Each structure stands twice: as C-alpha cells, then as structure tokens.
C-alpha cells in the first residue's frame, strides 16, 4: 500500500502543466512583438521602468480559460494560481486597463524614493503578480506589443530572451529590449 501511495505522489509531482513553457531548456531565443490597433482592440497595459508592455485582453482570457481547463482535470490543484483577480479585471469590459509594475521593475531604493508620489493599491499588486506568471508565456508566443520608454517608440526590432546565472548558482530568464534593458524576467531557480 505504501508503494502505491509513493507512486501516486511521484505521479502527481512529475505532472507538467500543459499551458506553460519549459523555460529551463531555453538558453537564448529571439523575440518579435506584434502590433495591434489600440483603438479597436481591448488591451491591458503594464508600465514598468523601461517599457510599457501591451497584452490583448482576448489573449489573456484564452490563456486563463485554457489553464483552468487543465487544472480542472487534475485531482490536486493549487487554489492560489487560478488568476481570479486578473480574470475579473479583464472581463469588466474596459477598453484600456493600465497597471503599474512597482514591485518587479524598480529597485528598493527607487521604490522608497517614489513612495510618496505613488498611488499604490494592494489589489493592483496582486493582479500584477498574477500577470507575471502568465506574461512570460504570452511574450514567448509573441502575443504582446511593447513601447520603449527611453526611445519613446514602439519596438519593431528583434528582442531577446536569455537565461542568466545569478548569485549563488540561481538561474533567471531575462527578456531584453534591443538596447539590452530588461523589461520582464522569470526566476527559474534560487541559489544555495
């Protein structure tokens, strides 16, 4: 009986999510952004330090629906990763949703210096955190548009994803603009 339980535990732990990409296999990859009409298309805008990243709301809905379909077929799920807040926000029917990424794009010193001028809402932080788990997949698939804030223009050149070894042996995946500024990242593993 214990062998059967161990087998079940190993089976559930080794089960891979079908809606996500295996980022550990990526060393480097070229990216190209799409362009879509922001007048006709409902979109979500995430404003960071170096860039504004645009996602179509329909792409976000499709991704969350597909992920929920995979999760509903599994007996063991994590309730925190259902993207309820983001899904509710996208389904409100707003044409333009503007979110600020204060937590991921800025350093601690920059956040402290901006602390008095930033209208910081907790729900917005939760939604941006949910988006940071979905965003890399949409960026990898090329379902995004990006505005470079330093050059004040939409990016049409090739961008790059690169796996970088961090401090103490950890790995991260950085999404670079053509001028080598980071506009998104994924932490793959922590160091010692």
Radius of gyration: 18 Å
Structural class: alpha+beta
> Which spans have pLDDT < 50 for at least 5 consecutive residues?
7-19
Order of helices and strands: HEEEHHEHHEEEEE
Mean pLDDT: 78
Strand order of the largest sheet: 4-2-3-5-6
Which band does the percent of strand residues land in? 15-25%
Provide the helix percentage.
25-40%
Distance between the termini: 36 Å
**Biggest sheet statistics:** 5 strands, mixed
- Count of DSSP helices? 5
Question: What would you call the shape?
Answer: globular
Number of strands: 9
Question: Can you walk through the features of this model?
Answer:
Helix content is 32%, strand content 24%. With 192 residues, it is of the alpha+beta class. The strands form two sheets. Strands 4-2-3-5-6 form a five-stranded mixed beta sheet. It has a domain at 38-155. The protein is built from five helices and nine strands. β7 (159-165) and β8 form a beta hairpin.
Topology:
Elements: H1 2-13, E1 28-31, E2 43-47, E3 51-56, H2 57-72, H3 84-90, E4 96-100, H4 108-114, H5 122-140, E5 145-148, E6 153-154, E7 159-165, E8 171-176, E9 182-189
Quick structural summary:
This protein is an alpha+beta fold and 192 residues long.
